Amino acid sequence: MRKKSIYVLFIILIFFGCDYLRKKNTVQLNPVARVGEKYLYLTDLVAMLPAGLSRLDSSNFAEKYVDNWVKKQLMITKAEEELTINEVNIDQKVEDYRFDLIMHEFEKIYINSHLSTTVPVAEVKSYYEVRSDNFLLKQNIVRALFAKIPNTINDLNQIRRDLRNYPNSDLEGIKKYCYRFAEISFLEDSVWINFDELIANTPFINEQNKTQFLERTVFSETRDDKYIYLLRIVEYKISDQIAPLDYIQEDIESIIINKRKLTLKKDLQRMIYEEALKTKKFEIYRD
Question: Which DSSP letter does residue 51 get?
């Protein structure tokens, strides 16, 4: 009964008395919960309430907040009872954490204001050429054309010929056909794609040795109960080979940008140190 009356009073305060509570800081209210010598007051609940909640949601919020507060305080109390806590050590950890947060925010602001995120193609290419052995593929990739066509479509001879003869056929004609008839298609022949992702949910996925399949296949066709699957391999790379530059270009750009961030961080530390050294802001006493 006591718990219900607290939440009823909470709702009344939310909808009728919040402004009054903000203006009258001296208003005394009964505590909502107590753990040992620590109290949670109704005014604390009002201050934590998110804006725009309905009365029911406000009541649910209050109940959950009180329960969580009690559990947290009980954990703290139990920890203090069971552990021999070095207060100085705790204070030092809190202070170190505070300094780490301040330094992190300062470094982030400095880096964001000085960082160039434009990476020239020449820089990407140079990085790749020097470190290409670091970019070994972990999967087979292909440049390919693929179409999944309902087996109710009768006119397949032309699309078969066009895919088999590609690139000595009209890509625009292939695209027009696929846009009209294909359930799914992949027609970006210049884009490298994970081979397993391309053939997922097709009978091609059942190939026991996909490396051999790629090595011997230029054009392939298979089917199931509902669809016909047409695949034209334009180029392929096997797992453990060096990845093509255009496949990993974005990864290299991210690596270069992250290296720039580390450089800026070191430059900031050096700049601050040298400035302090010139102005004699610090001294190191040695025996």
Answer: T
252 Cβ partners below 8 Å, 6+ apart?
119, 124, 127, 128, 135, 245
Is the pLDDT at 164 greater than 60? The verdict is: yes
Q: Which residues are bridge partners to 222 per DSSP?
A: 229
N- to C-terminal Cα separation, the chain: 72
Question: Can you tell me the distance from the alpha carbon of 183 to that of 149, in angstroms, rounded to the nearest whole number?
Answer: 6
Mean pLDDT value across residues 17-40: 65
Helices (H), the chain: 2-12, 18-23, 42-48, 55-82, 87-114, 121-131, 157-165, 171-181, 195-199, 210-216, 245-278
Tokens of 242: 């060096």
Q: Which residues contact 132 (CB under 8 A, 6 or more apart)?
A: 242
pTM of the model: 0.69
